[in-house]
Amino acid sequence: MTSAIPHPTPAGGAAVDELLDPAFLQDVEHRSMADVRVLRRRAEQEEVNLSYTRRLLQGRLDIVRRELQRRAEHDGRSLVDLLPEILAEKGRGPAHGLGRHQTVQPASPEEYESWVHGLTPDVDLSDVMGLADADLERAARALAAAEGQLSERRRGVQQVMDALAGELARRYRNGEADVAALLADEGR
Question: pTM for the whole thing?
Answer without folding.
Answer: 0.81
